[in-house]
UniProtKB/TrEMBL annotation:
<comment type="function">
    <text>Lignin degradation and detoxification of lignin-derived products.</text>
</comment>
<dbReference type="InterPro" id="IPR017761">
    <property type="entry name" value="Laccase"/>
</dbReference>
<feature type="domain" description="Plastocyanin-like">
    <location>
        <begin position="157"/>
        <end position="308"/>
    </location>
</feature>
<dbReference type="InterPro" id="IPR011706">
    <property type="entry name" value="Cu-oxidase_C"/>
</dbReference>
<keyword id="KW-0186">Copper</keyword>
<keyword id="KW-0479">Metal-binding</keyword>
<feature type="signal peptide">
    <location>
        <begin position="1"/>
        <end position="22"/>
    </location>
</feature>
<keyword id="KW-0732">Signal</keyword>
<dbReference type="GO" id="GO:0048046">
    <property type="term" value="C:apoplast"/>
</dbReference>
<dbReference type="InterPro" id="IPR045087">
    <property type="entry name" value="Cu-oxidase_fam"/>
</dbReference>
<dbReference type="Pfam" id="PF07731">
    <property type="entry name" value="Cu-oxidase_2"/>
</dbReference>
<keyword id="KW-0560">Oxidoreductase</keyword>
<dbReference type="InterPro" id="IPR002355">
    <property type="entry name" value="Cu_oxidase_Cu_BS"/>
</dbReference>
<feature type="domain" description="Plastocyanin-like">
    <location>
        <begin position="31"/>
        <end position="144"/>
    </location>
</feature>
<dbReference type="GO" id="GO:0005507">
    <property type="term" value="F:copper ion binding"/>
</dbReference>
<keyword id="KW-0677">Repeat</keyword>
<dbReference type="Pfam" id="PF07732">
    <property type="entry name" value="Cu-oxidase_3"/>
</dbReference>
């Protein structure tokens, strides 16, 4: 500690350039069972270090993280560092059966990676089955020493993590849904930092309170860790300034409401009132829903409380409490306007390096579908009909997880029987994607990868389908940030739509909401060798197969190759 302090002092005095190296930070995350009570229901849940949500992990750009994860629970486990690029360190990415076999009971694994060229709010979560329902926490990357934010320095920084609380065991919920082919039960509450707040029964004591001083600026690091719901969020009688999304600085803009999909993060500046307002303010979140299925339509509330002056007349309990007005649950108009406001900062220090030329263009459909009911003895299923089970797919392939991890299979040259390298660049059977759905809604199944040569510049259009209803899908790509160069409704038109692409300052992120009944076009440079999962971050859709993986091959130079696997990499 003392030595870097000295160094920091020296670099300030002598105006030395920033050191290119960071420090190594060690963390131990013990995955343990832990009793938690919410809404008067107590359950034993899988937790990190006996905390719910999990502890904050903090690092600086350039640091190396060595995170030892020890599995003390009966479940298999793996952790993902959502949004971390993992340059050449794919072994530490975390999705089970994609980049690693799960960590088995009693075993441990050290996730080893260096944070290169990233700073901002990210998060970590379990990446196996539905365990991320309770295993998640903030992952905060500060800028390098002496590098300021491109906005006024906040008085305080506060992580606000949205989650979903289920009274029942989430592993049982997804097990049941997989058996019956039906939609899984929905959550009982939304939470802010694990707390549902006073709008639920038996919950007033579990309320997140943000205590502020007047006339100060607070940086709220907002993370949507909910399993299955995009969320609107607003603070009564306050506006916020959005300054960052998915750990990328954006052109600041003011808004009274934000929309955040599962997997996404949004940093906002909250400027408090200039003087003590003699009131408190609800901060509420509830879902944005476009699909047909049942959903949890409840509202989580936290309270923004101003520190009271000494001679305040009313006690804080008796203050008037204002409530924000959130958009309607299906307000796609708001969603579109909000996503159009998000632009990369694109400054000298933080340029938007949008690929201007494209080597390969892909067109994938994303949406729901069905599988035939697989029950014996004439038992019926609970899918959209009693002879079908819900499924979801990319380009009509519902992705099956292998029983060995893809990255090891690739690295050791033993891909036979594990995956095939023939993901279609275009749907095999084109149809009117957003028109009247086809009669046949069946998906095919497989473990198909799209192979890219190192440094391929990719353009990918993701097209929602109206099969079983159009729906917004937050698509997340591991291993890369991408630029969202275009979005629209209806079917993507390859002749017209590219003319309107923004190749100057599009938002750069790791998770994009493909508009309901529309499409999103992204570009990225495949400069990171490895196997990279891409999936809908609505966990139910991932479970149903809305997922696939990219295989990016090594480049020729030594620094363009995937590093060798660590010795403690879990075995299947
Ligand atoms: Cu946030 Cu593949 O996950």
């Amino acid at each position: 500690m003392a030595s870097w302090l000295l160094f920091a002092v020296f670099s300030c005095v002598l105006l030395l350039p920033e050191p290119a190296f960071g420090i190594t930070r060690h963390y131990t995350l013990d995955i343990k069972m832990h009793n938690v009570t919410r809404l008067c229901h107590t359950k034993s849940l899988v937790s990190v270090n006996g905390k719910f949500p999990g502890p904050k992990i903090i690092a600086r750009e350039g640091d190396q993280l060595l995170i030892k994860v020890v599995n003390h629970v009966p479940n298999n486990i793996s952790l993902h560092w959502h949004g971390i690029r993992q340059l050449r360190s794919g072994w530490a990415d975390g999705p089970a059966y994609i980049t690693q076999c799960p960590i088995q009971t009693g075993q441990s694994y050290v996730y080893n990676y260096t944070i290169v060229g990233q700073r901002g709010t990210l998060w970590y979560h379990a990446h196996i089955s539905w365990l991320r329902a309770t295993v998640y926490g903030p992952l905060i990357i500060l800028p390098k020493h002496g590098v300021p934010y491109p906005f006024p320095k906040p008085h305080k920084e506060v992580p606000m993590v949205f989650g979903e609380w289920f009274n029942a065991d989430t592993e049982a919920i997804i097990r049941q849904a997989t058996l019956t082919g039906g939609g899984p039960n929905v959550s009982d509450a939304y939470t802010i930092n694990g707390l549902p707040g006073p709008l639920y029964n038996c919950s007033a004591k579990d309320t997140f309170r943000l205590r502020v001083k007047p006339g100060k600026t607070y940086l709220l690091r907002i993370i949507n860790a909910a399993l299955n719901d995009e969320l609107f969020f607003s603070i009564a009688n306050h506006t916020v300034t959005v300054v960052e999304a998915d750990a990328i600085y954006v052109k600041p803009f003011e808004t009274d409401t934000i929309l955040i999909a599962p997997g996404q993060t949004t940093n906002v500046l909250l400027k408090t009132k200039p003087s003590y307002p003699s009131a408190s303010f609800f901060m509420t979140a509830r879902p944005y829903v476009t699909g047909q299925g049942t959903f949890d339509n409840s509202t989580v509330a936290g309270i923004l409380e101003y520190e009271q002056p000494k001679h305040a007349k009313t006690s804080i309990k008796n203050l008037q409490l204002f409530t924000p007005v959130l958009p309607a649950l299906n307000d796609t108009n708001f969603a579109t306007k909000f996503s159009n406001k998000l632009r990369s900062l694109n400054s000298k220090k933080f340029p938007a390096n949008v690929p201007q030329k494209v080597d390969r263009k892909f067109f994938f459909t994303v949406g729901l579908g069905t599988n035939p009911c697989n029950h014996k003895n004439n038992q019926t299923c609970q899918g959209p009909t009693n002879t079908t089970m819900f499924a979801a797919s990319i380009s009509n392939i519902s992705f099956t997880l292998p029983t060995k991890a893809l990255l090891q299979s690739h690295y050791s040259g033993k891909s036979n029987g594990v995956y095939s390298s023939n993901f279609p660049w275009n749907p095999i059977v084109p149809f009117n994607y957003t028109g009247t759905p086809p009669n046949n809604t069946m998906v095919s199944t497989g473990t198909n990868l799209m192979v890219l040569r190192y440094n391929t510049s990719v353009e990918l259009v993701m097209q929602d389908t109206s099969i079983l209803g159009a729906e917004s899908h937050p698509l997340h790509l591991h291993g890369f940030n991408f630029f969202v160069v275009g979005q629209g409704f209806g079917n993507f038109d390859p002749n017209k739509d590219p003319k309107n692409f923004n190749l100057v300052d599009p938002i750069e992120r790791n998770t994009v909401g493909v508009p309901s009944g529309g499409w999103a076009a992204i570009r990225f440079l495949a400069d990171n060798p490895g196997v990279w999962f891409m999936h809908c971050h609505l966990e139910v859709h991932t479970s149903w197969g809305l997922r696939m993986a990219w295989l990016v091959l090594d480049g020729d130079k030594p620094d363009q190759k995937l590093l060798p696997p660590p010795a403690d990499l879990p075995k299947c």
